[in-house]
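Why does residue order matter? Because the sequence determines the fold. Keep that principle in mind as you read this record.
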Amino acid sequence: MKTIIKALVAPCMSVAASFLLAGCGPSTLDFRNAEVVNGKIFRAGADKPYSGHLTNAPARAAIVGRKDYAAYQQVLSNVYTSLGIQAGIYTGAAVCDVDVEQGVLDGKAVCRATADQLLSDEMSFDKGALDGRIKTYFPRNGGKLAAEAEFDNGVLDGDMTMYGPQSARKILQVSFKQGKVHGKQEIFDDETGKPVFRATYSKGLVNGELVRYSRGTDRLAYRVRMVDGVKDGIEENYDAFSGKLRDRSGWKMGKPHGEVVVATLDNDRNPTDELKVVQRYDNGVLRPSEPAATTATEAATVAPVTPAKLQGCIDARIVAFRIQHGDEEVITADQLSEWETECREGKRS
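Structure:
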């Protein structure tokens, strides 16, 4: 019996019989000799799904059209577009070598740009679903790492980071929990490294402040507080060049609430420091522009508060709050309403 076993094993161990090695290890199939039937990969003409190593599979056919990869690619596209970056990522035109088990992707996959075989993507699959670490590279930019993320059974789960094509510095830091953004998301300018966007999410919805900055500067461009994805608190827009406030409004659980103020513009239509009240809402309902009439007794005892003085009083409280708590501390709609009431009653901060 031992003699028979040795006789069978010998061809695979003999250098002289190296031409037989293909029959001793995992099979290899070129994609040109494969066919896809009902989402499974077969060797052309075979009755059973293929298991082994598949080479030269077009990424568009094997990777790009997948729902799990599309979610990852969408994040890349959104960030590059927001930063005006031409990334030069060639996944769609790449070819991949992938492991297959019973007709589905299972194991490691490596994709390369077709023209010069430069590395494009590395990822892994578990029974047809993206699982584990995925890495994307800039093929024509020295093979620098462009992005990396974690998948768990076909959904993004864990940290995701993107890097700029020129500086190689971080341009995105975000975390996912079962396919939804969870925790702080930050986007940075590739050239300067300064923040462009910052928000905190819970189960895919913004919870807390969402902030945008003017590209390459520390100047605020936009700020709003949100709860479960709806506005709740102060919303502010700033001039991109001067950093001056353009307008401010209040929200209460998705409904306009409080005064809407805008900056007076100069002759060049740039905002000045002078603010004026243009509208006022009460829980989504637009209030009359004219102040309500007061009785003779009230008129004698209550000094009138002009819109300019009222807004100046509220602005002073906002500035004091920012000095004490910092720019990242949120101002709620209730806090804003309280300040407005105090200012109307003439109370000092």
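The first helix runs from residue 2 to 13.
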